[in-house]
Amino acid sequence: MRFTRSSIIPSLVATLILLIAGHVYQTQNSENFRAALRSDVQSTLGLVEAQIQANIDSNTVALSGLANDIAIDGDITASRFAALATAIMERNPGIRRISLAPDGVVSRVMPSMENKRMAGTRLDRFYSQRTASQRAQAHGRAAIGSLLVLPDSSRGFDVYIPVFLTPHGMPVLWGFVEAVIDESAVYLGANLTTVAGRGAVAAGRSTPVTLGIRDVSDPANIGDAFFGTNATFHTGPVLQDVVLPGGTWQLAGVPVGGFDRRPDNQEQIGLMILACAMIVIVPIVLTFGLMGERRRAVTALDRRNQEFLAMSQRLNLALECSSFGVWEIDLETRLRTWDDRMYSLHGLVSRNGAPGPTCWKANIHPDDLPHAEEVLNNTVMFLEPYQTDYRVVLPSGTRHIRHIGAVNMGSDRRKTVTGLSWDITEDVRLTTAMMEAKAFAEAQTAKLAAAKDRIEHNALHDPLTELGNRRMLDAALAALLDRDPERATDVAVLHLDLDRFKQINDTLGHAAGDAMLVHASQVLKTEAGPGDLVARIGGDEFVVLVPNPVPGQLEALSERIIARMRQPVDYHGYSCRFGVSVGIAVGRGADADLRRLLVNADIALYRAKEKGRNRYEFFSEALQSEIVNSKRIGDEILEGIERGEFTAWYQPQFDAETLTLCGVEALIRWNHPRDGVLTPDRFLSIAEDLNVVATLDQIVMERALIDLMHWTAAGLNIPRISVNVSARRLRDETLLDSLSGLAFTPGQLCFELVEAIFLDGDDEIITANIAGIVALGIDIELDDFGTGHTSIVSLLKIKPKRLKIDRQLVSPITHAPREQALVRAIIEIGRSLGIGTVAEGVETLAHAEMLAVLGCDILQGYAFSKPLPADQLADLAAAEWQLAS
Fold this sequence. Notes:
Layout: H1 5-73, H2 78-91, E1 95-102, E2 108-110, H3 127-139, E3 143-149, E4 155-165, E5 172-182, H4 183-189, E6 192-195, E7 198-201, E8 209-215, E9 238-244, E10 247-255, H5 266-321, E11 325-330, E12 336-338, H6 340-345, H7 357-361, H8 369-382, E13 386-394, E14 397-409, E15 415-423, H9 425-460, H10 470-481, E16 491-499, H11 501-508, H12 510-527, E17 533-538, E18 541-547, H13 553-566, E19 569-571, E20 574-576, E21 579-587, H14 594-610, E22 616-618, H15 621-643, E23 646-655, E24 661-672, E25 676-678, H16 684-689, H17 693-713, E26 721-725, H18 727-730, H19 735-739, E27 749-754, H20 764-775, E28 779-785, H21 792-798, E29 802-805, H22 807-810, H23 817-832, E30 836-840, H24 845-854, E31 858-860, H25 870-879
Parallel strand pairs: 21-22, 24-26, 26-27, 27-28, 28-29, 29-30, 30-31
Antiparallel strand pairs: 1-2, 1-5, 3-4, 4-5, 6-7, 7-8, 8-10, 9-10, 11-12, 11-15, 13-14, 14-15, 16-18, 16-21, 17-18, 19-20, 23-24, 23-31, 24-25
């Protein structure tokens, strides 16, 4: 039975009325339930408030008695205090501690053994204690403070009772009676317990309540809940203030499950509404359903008769208008019956529906006729369905016709085949075109696939060497990262960099460089194992990824590669030689950090180049630690420059004949915040890598000039200050501009230049800067003379004021005749050119005497003084210390 609109509408109306009535009833029931919950919670909070107040008041009354005794007597003895405190704590077990604090400083405390560390403690050392004691003093009565943690890890509430004396009729604050009321005793007195991390009313309440308590004594500084959780205060709770001596607590309560929980009788009400709906709706549905079913049956019968007539008419019209031809074949007589459309399809004239065999075959394409006759014979003999396509040759062209039919047995037991035929010429044309398009598309797809393969190959390979590129290396590492940890093996990375490749590239051209790269790639492919990945990752850098290396394999592979790379390579008659440096990093098993392998191999490569190139080095934890330490020092150098941690120390220089102070050399020192004063050997090489040596030179020079100004102002005569200038700073085009604003007397400032700067090369910037420096009245000293290759021509060109003989030559002169002769020759060369000499590294008086005999002008070294900070050098100069004394 189906439902009709006449049965559904009354049912829906009745259902709607029942739903509205049920909803109204349930809403009212829920409101009543929530109102009852809020009333229960309010009642519970009132009871808890009264119990807490009673508990706190009883304790404070007992403590106030002790305060009154002190106020009456003016003080209290230790024994009396111990007796009274013990009696109070016995009558009030909730009090854990009682202390006396004259002038706010604890002097006595009970129990004394457990709280002996309290003696001498100030009550105002914390904000919460200070505010509570101030409230007690201001109101002249007890004040409850914050929650404290006791030595045994339990907690209690701090209580302060002010004690006032009236020596002259005016109240004067003597101090406080301080006590701690046990937290659990307060909660136990109010029947409170803690359940699952939140405050809750103890058993026996009509409605279990989630409870929170916080201190609101200071509205501007309301703290977190000390009982329950802060969340209780943010869930629409019932709030109740508990007014305590000198403070106020706030209670927040919500029923367990919240105010929005469902009433207990909600399911019963729902079932009652459902039962009422069933009682009313089911009879309505059944009654109106039966009535509608009868009407539908009558209507359906009339509609089917009309549809049958309409279908017959549509079929006749469709056959007349369509391109289908209808035919029939008598299987016994082979007679055919065609309609006019069949004749038209075959290019024939209608013959009253019965074409003969010759007429049927006249226009069929000769190639299709045998198959058409075979299909017809199979249908006649085996009663198979008739289905065939053949071509008809017409003057206008060839037509494709499709025939389908089925065997039918009439009421007279005669068997016929009845079917349809239609022109499929356009379908055949479209099919042929689609086949050709498919073949073309397949050919294009094959070309695209080939192009895709070429693109992928080019994307993963270096076009010059046909090695894998960085993308292929990254893909191989990513595949290793995704491997099963249980089957993970060791992985090694060899990072290679060609030595002297840039010289070949610059001198013979990029074509020669490319030839060397191809040669290097062939060497690597030849020497690498069948499972190894060789990649070029840029410029003259290569990587070999070796999975599961065996002991000794990596060393042997590196040695073979280095040996073959050393062999000369012929390029258009030029013998090109280059080498290779190799850094090796190994990842061990599943713990290998493959992302760090390339970084570690690069660190090892850096070490190999640092040790002389054309070699291999393994990455190690010590090497990483060294690199990390250098990075840390580099960062600290940059930070130290920003914070002004670098300064100048000064080593005095003395006249070789009179041994009087004739100058100082300014030396860089680092006031390290952790390691103290550091000398340049601890940081200068790293500063050179950071390209900040010129900055440090500038700092030393500015500091030296400032100190010189201070010495001069103090009446000290420092004839000359020498400062070191690096090669990079000497090549700075802005050097002269930075010096033009400095204040000094000509000849008072001297630049020490390293001998290696002047290797007989023509550097226009250096030459111009030296000329400008001399023009500004700054002397030039050639530092570390005798260790480089400066020629006499360079000395004549530079015209330094002094030559500074390196300590390596000075140190052995007392026992080595060869070095002694060399120092004498340097002194004689300087004297012949009008250039003075300074000997550094003078460690003993024997060295000083011999250098004076050899004719050296100025002496500097530990035999006279070590480098000193500015203040100590000032003391030395003030004392006019001389070695002659």
